[in-house]
Amino acid sequence: MPLTRRKFAQSALAAGAIAALPSVFSACTESSKAAGTVRSAAVARPKLSPVQDSFPISFPKNFSWGAATAAYQIEGAWNQDGKGESIWDRFVRVPGKIKNGDTGDDACDSYHRWREDIALLRAMNINSYRFSISWPRIQPNASGSPNAAGVDYYSRLVDALLELHIRPIATLYHWDLPQHLEDAGGWPNRDTAGRFADYTEICARAFGDRVSDWVLFNEPLAFTYRGYLEGAHAPGRTSLPDFLHATHVVNLAQGAGFQALKQTLSSARVGTAFSMSPCEPATNSEEDKLAAERAHALINLWFLEPAMKGRYPQGFAFLPATLMGIRAGDFEKMRAPLDFIGINLYYRTIASAIGIVERVSSPQDWLFPVKMSGGDEGPKTDAGWEVWPQAMYDMIMSVTREYHRPQIEITESGCAYNDGPGPDGAIRDARRIEYHRQYLGAVGRAISEGADVRGYHAWSLMDNFEWSEGFSQRFGMAYVDFKTQKRTMKESGRWYGKVAAENGIGGD
Ligand code: FCB
C-alpha cells in the first residue's frame, strides 16, 4: 500500500478535482476565519522544535493506548464457516496485482489464533483495540440474516477484550466489500449505501450491548481512489466517473450508517478513520500556496466536510453534480455529526501547482491540477515514507481549529521496518521505537496546546498482509513468522507496553 499511496500523493490527477476553480477553498478559509486562527494545515509552519524538547511527557488520565488491525489483513480463513467472498479475495487472484503473488487467504490466521493476539495486547498493556469486522463474514451475500459463525467469532473476541478491560473499537468497513455487491456495481452504485446501513444495523444489534465505539469507514479516500481510479487495490477499476460516483456513495453511506447506528444504539460513539496528511506548499509562490489549500480540501476534507457540515468542500462546486451522481436532498443525507474524528496519519504532503502547458496536454490534469508528493527531509521508512512527526502535530491542530476542538482518536500511525529476529531471536526495531516516540511526542504537544485527543492506535499490533505490497512490509509491534504463524514481541512492543503502563514517555 505505501507505494500506491505514494503514487496517489504524486498524482496530479488525484490531486485536484477540486482545484480548477478559484472558489475552491473558500470552505477552509471560512472555517478558519471563524476559528480566528491561521488557516488549516495547508500553510507552511516552522518545523517542530527538536522533539526531545517535549520529553518527558505524560498523557491525560484515561488516555487510550491502542493498537489497530483490519480483518482482511489478519484473519485468513477467507472461505471458512460460511464467509462470503470479498473483493479482496477476488482481487488477490488477479495475476500481477500483489507483490510476490501473496494473498490474505491465511494472513496471520487470526480467525483461529485470536487468543494469541489478545495475549499480545495484554502483554503490551494495551487498553484499546481497533479491529475491523468483515462484512462478508457477517453477510456472505450482503443481504439477509447474519451468518451465525461470523457473529460468534467477533462476539468471542469482544468478550475476551472486555474481560481484560480492553476497549473494543469496531471498524465496520476496512475495504473488504462483499463481492456480491461489487457484482451489482460496487461503491459507485447508490444502493450500496443502503446495504451498508443494513449491515451496520446488524452489527449494532449483535455487538452493541458490548461495543460502544464504532468506526464507520477506514480511509474513504484511499479505498475509493485506489480501488476505482488507480486500480491498484480491489476491485481494480480505473474509471474517473466510477471514482467520483464511489466517493459520493460512500459519503451517503457514511450518513446512512451513522443514522442506523444511532437509531439502533443511541449511546454509540461513532467516528470514521480518515487518511489525513497536512499539505505544505512546495515553495512560497502564491500558486503553490493555492495548490496546498486545494490538496488539503481533497485529501483531508472530501469525506469529513460532508459528514460534519453536510456539504462538499466548496472547491468541489464546479464539478457538475451529475459527474458525481449528486441528487436533490443528498447533502442532508450525507450529514453525520461524528462523535469523534479518527485520524490515520503517517506523513506530510508537499503540493505544487501544475503549469498551464501540462494542463492542456491532459484533460485529467486540467480537472485535477495539483501535484502532490511526500517530503524529502526526514528519514525514510522501509516503505519509503518520510518520518515527519511535525505532520502529526499540524494535522491534529488543523482539525482542532477547523472543527472547533472535536474529540480526536489517532486511529492509526506506524511505520514499515523489516527488522527480523537476530541470532538470539530478539527483534531489535529501534527505528520503530523512535518513530512512535516522536509521533507520540507530537500528539502530547498538541494535547498540551488544547487538542482533545483521546487515544493513539499504533498500526499495527503485528506484521500482516499489507494490501498490494503483500507480506513485504512489516508494520507490527509483534513479529509474525508467516510460515509458522508464530508471533514474537518486538522491542518496540515492549517499549510501547512500558509507555502504556506509565501513561507517558520518559526523558531518556
Ligand atoms: C493505512 C491502512 C492500513 C494499513 C496502513 C499501513 O492506510 O488503513 O490498513 O495498510 O495504512
The number of distinct β-strands equals 15
**How confident is the prediction overall: mean pLDDT?**
89
How far the N terminus sits from the C terminus, by CA atoms, comes to: 34 Å
For CATH, the homologous superfamily is named as Glycosidases
Helix content: 40-55%
| Coarse shape | globular
Biggest sheet architecture: 8 strands, parallel, barrel
Strand proportion, as a percent range, falls in 5-15%
CATH fold-level topology: TIM Barrel
The total count of helices amounts to 21
Number of domains: 1
Structural class: alpha/beta
Provide the list of bound ligands, each named once: beta-D-fucopyranose
CATH architecture: Alpha-Beta Barrel
Question: Strands across the major sheet, in which order?
Answer: 2-3-4-5-6-8-11-12
Q: What is the CATH class designation?
A: Alpha Beta
Poorly predicted runs are 1-40
Write down the Rg.
21 Å
Compose a concise summary of this entry.
This protein has helices at 2-10, 12-15, 26-35, 71-74, 87-91, 110-123, 135-138, 148-163, 179-183, 191-207, 220-230, 240-264, 286-301, 304-309, 321-324, 330-334, 356-361, 363-367, 389-402, 430-448, 491-502, and strands at residues 57-58, 64-68, 128-132, 167-173, 213-218, 269-276, 279-281, 340-345, 349-353, 370-373, 407-413, 452-459, 478-481, 486-489, 504-505.
SSE layout and pairing:
Elements: H1 2-10, H2 12-15, H3 26-35, E1 57-58, E2 64-68, H4 71-74, H5 87-91, H6 110-123, E3 128-132, H7 135-138, H8 148-163, E4 167-173, H9 179-183, H10 191-207, E5 213-218, H11 220-230, H12 240-264, E6 269-276, E7 279-281, H13 286-301, H14 304-309, H15 321-324, H16 330-334, E8 340-345, E9 349-353, H17 356-361, H18 363-367, E10 370-373, H19 389-402, E11 407-413, H20 430-448, E12 452-459, E13 478-481, E14 486-489, H21 491-502, E15 504-505
Parallel strand pairs: 2-3, 2-12, 3-4, 4-5, 5-6, 6-8, 7-9, 8-11, 11-12
Antiparallel strand pairs: 1-15, 9-10, 13-14
Bound molecules: beta-D-fucopyranose.
Beta-D-fucopyranose is lined by residues 1, 70, 73, 218-219, 222, 275, 344, 412, 459, 466-467, 475.
